[in-house]
What does this fold into?
Amino acid sequence: MATAIAVSPSRWTQLLLLLAALCCLFSPAVSVKHENFKTCDQSGFCKRNRAYADSAASLSSLWTSPYALDSASLTFSKGQLSGTILKTIATSDQTVRLPVTISFFESGSARVIVDEEKRQKGDIELRHGSKARKERYNEAEKWAIVGGTKLSSGAAAAKDAQPGTTKISYGPGSKFEAIVSHSPFGIEFKRDGETHIKLNDRGLLNVEHWRAKVDKPQEEKKEGEAEGDEVKKDVGEDESTWWDEAFGGNTDTKPRGPESVALDVTFPGYEHVFGVPEHTGPLSLRQTRGGEGNFNDPYRLYNADVFEYEMNSPMTLYGAIPFMQAHKKDSTVGVFWLNAAETWIDIVKSKSSANPLSLGIGSHTDTQTHWFSESGLLDIFVFLGPTPKDVVSSFSELTGYTQLPQQFAIAHHQCRWNYVTDEDVKDVDRKFDKSQIPYDVIWLDIEYTDGKKYFTWDPLTFPNPLGMQKQLDDHERKLVAIIDPHIKNEGGYSVVDELKSKDLATHNKDGNIYEGWCWPGSSYWVDCFSPAARKWWGQLFQYAKFKGSAHNLWLWNDMNEPSVFNGPETTMPKDNLHHGNWEHRDVHNLNGLTLVNATFEGLVSRNKEEEKAGGVRPFVLTRSFYAGSQRMGAMWTGDNQANWEHLEASLPMILSLGVSGFPFAGADVGGFFGNPSRELLTRWYQAGAFYPFFRAHAHIDTRRREPYLLPDLEKGIVTQALRLRYALLPAWYTAFHTASKNGAPIVQPMYYAHPGDEKGFAIDDQMYLGSTGLLVKPVTKEGATSVEMYLPDGEKYFDYSDYTIYNGPGHVKINAPLDKIPLLMRGGHIVPRRDRPRRSSGLMKFDPFTLVVVLGNDGNAEGELYLDDGETYDYEQGAYIHRRFTYTGATWSLASEDLSSKGKKTAQYVQQMKDVRVEKIVIVNAPSSWKGKTEVDVSEEGTSSSGESKKAGFEFVGGESGKADWAVVRNPQVSIGGGWKIGFA
It folds into this structure.
C-alpha cells in the first residue's frame, strides 16, 4: 500500500478531505518523489566514504591504509583468530584500538568482526543528553543468524606464512585459506590456491571512531573557498557532516557523532555480481560510479515506503538483504554484510590484461565493491563456494531457510484495496466459482477495520466476519487481513491503551512515546525489539482477543519499514529509541523482520488451539524484510504500476530475491497503481503463474479487475494460466520443500542452473521452476507475438503444450500469441502434476497424479515429488511422501524410489494416501520403436511375492513435423506413495 505525503498534524483533516475530493477526479500520479529520499551526496556518511575512496584512488600507489594489525595482540584458538587493529590518526599522535575477531566455521564460511574498544567500554560522552546506548550495535545476529556458526576444530594456523602475515587453512579438506596481512590490515581468501576475495585490497577500510565535538571559532573564508573546505581534516573527512544533519525539514541529532564503518571487497576475475535486494535494476548488478549504462549513486539499503518507485534504479525500496554473490565460469563466492543500519554499496568493474599487445586475449575483469554503513559493527561473512548452490546453501544455513508454507499459500491469491463489505467478499467468492476460476485466498486491506483500528471489524460493513470466513472455509479457502504496526492514538481503544500503559511502543530521542502519522492519523508504533512487546503483540491474535477471526484467517504485515507519513524519508527519525535504548539508526533495516517475527510467533501460539495435533503452519506476508525474514513467510515487491516496464522488472527482482535467500517472493499481478489494458493484465497473469508468491492486487482508485470481469477471450486465457498453476502445484510444492531444506531458489536464473555457461550469466527474463527442467520466458512487451528464448546447452527442449522440439545452444524463436505462455521442458526431467481442475488447492488433496517424463539426449530422465498434508507440522514426524522417479533408457523402465525418512506418523499418512494413484504417464521424446505397442508391464512393491506384473494400456503418438514423438500410459494402477516399476520393453 502506498504512503501519503508528509503533513503537519494540524492540517491532517483538511488535507484528507482535499485528497478525497481529488481522488474522485484524478487517477494517482505515477512518479517517485525524489525529493523525499536522500541521494549519496545528501547522506553525510555516504558522501564522506565516497570522498575517502576518491582520495585514496587519487593517491594511487602512494596511498597506505592507516589500519594495521598489532601482531603482538594476535591469538589463535579453536577456529578463531583474535587481535587488535590500530588506526593511526594522521593529524595527531592518537591511535584508535579496534578489536578484531576472524572466525572459521565448520560450515566452511568465515566471519570478520571489527569493533571499537572505547565504545565497548562505554568510555564516550553522548551529545544532547541522549539516552542512547554507547556501544556499537551488536545484536543484529540475534535476529538474522540461526545456524552455521560452530567454530571449526580443523582450522589451523599454517607455519609457512610470509613475514607480516598470518595464514589459516580451513573448510572442507582444508582447501580454503585466509591470508591476513598485518600492515596495512587486509585479508585474502583463497580456494584451492586461487584468490577469490580480498578485503581492504584498496585500503578503504574506515571505522569512524568516537570523538568529542569541539566548538571552534568561525574562520573567515578565503575568496573561492567552498562551504566545508575549511573543516576537511584527513582523507575524505568532512567535519561539516559529522554532527547534526538536516533533511526534508527534520534534524537528526546524531548524539554519538560520526560512526560509520566501511570496507572494500574485491572479487578478482569476477565480472558478474548478484544480490543486495531490493532494487529495480537488472539481476547482474550495474556499476555505480557513472558512465554509459551505469548508475551514478551506490545501491542503497534503507527500508522505506517508496511511493510509485521507478525502474532501473539503485534507490532504496522496502527491504534489504546485504548479501552478494560473485560468479564466473564454474565458480561462485559470496559475502554477507551483517549490519542493520543504512547501507550503500558501490560497484566498479575493472578490466585488465597481462599483456598490452594481447588485444584482450587473456584479459579478465575484477569487480571492486565498497560497502559502508552509518553505524554498528563491521561484520562480514565470506563464502567460498564453489557453486551457486553451495553459496546460497551456506548463506541460508546461516540466516535460515524458507519455511515450508501451507499449500494454499503457493496457490492463487485475490486482493484489492478494498473489498468493502463482508457481502462483497462473499459475492466475489461466488463469482469465481460461477466462472470456474480457481483461487485459494481473498484479502482485506485497511478498510475492514473500525476506523483504522487493527484487531477490530467495521460494524457497519463487516457485521458478520465469522459468517464470511465460514463461506470461504466451505470451499477450502482462506482470508488474509492486513494488520500494520502503527496503532491509532484514540482513547478507549483497548490496543493502544495497553500499548501505552505497558510501555511497549517505540520512544523518541527524549525517551517519551513516539507519535507519528500514518493511515489512522496520530499513531504509535509497537516496538518489537522488546521481548515483552513481541509477547503482547502475539497474544493479540488469539481468537478471544481478535474477535471475529477464525482458523482460516491469516495475516499481512504492511507499512513495517516502518512507514511514517510525516517522518524523514517517510520513516522514523534515526534518533528514536528502541528496547535497550538502541537508536533506530542502528536497527532500522531489522524493524520489519521483528514485526513479522512477533506475528509469526503469535500465530503459532494461536494455532495450538487447533484440534490438529501437529499444529498449523502460519502464513504471514511482509513488505519490509531483512536477511532472516524468509523464515517467517512471503514478501512482495510493493506498490508497482500497471505498465509493461513494471511487469518486465518483476522478473529480475524476484530472481534476485531468490538467489539472496528469500525465494518466496512475488509482485502485484496487474500492477497496484493504474488500470492495465486487457492485454497487459492477461500477460501479467501468465507471468504471475510463475511467481513463487502469486497475488493479484490493486489500488482503491482502480477499476475492478477480477478475472471473471474480463471479456470472454481474455477471461479464458487467464483461466487457462491459473489452471496451469494449479496443475503444477505438485512441482511447486516440491520446489518449496527443497528450498526449506537447502535454500535453493524456487525460480532459478540461468547462471544458477548452468554455472558454466557464460552467455547466460546476465539473462534475467527467463527462469526455471526449481529442478523440474521447466523453462519459462513470460511475455513482457506490448503487442509481442513471439519471444527469443536462450537455450544454454545441447539438450533438447520441448514445448510444454505441443512438444515442438527446440535445439540449443543459442537463441530460439518461440511463437507466443496472447493465449500462449512460452514454456519449454528440458530433456532429462520428470514433472509431477495434477490435471483435474478444482476450485481451490484444498480440494485437490486426494486427486490422482500425472507424470510427464521428458527423455533427454541420453534416453534418461529423473524427477522428484514431495507431498504432505499441506497444512500442519506433521511432516516433521514423518507424515509425508518423498519419491524419486527415474526413467532408465538402457532398460526402458520407469521406477519410483522412496526418499523419505520414517517417523512416528509415517505409516498413518501413507495409509491415508494409499488410494491416491498415478492416473497417467506421458513420455515425451519417446523411442520410435515403441510404435504399435499397446501395453506395458507394471509391478508394484508388496503386491506379489513372486514378482508377477500386471498390464496397463499404452498408446504411441508420432509427432508431426518438428514435434516429438510421445506416448501415454493410462491408469497404470500404482500408488503415488508406493514403490513400483513400469517396463516398456
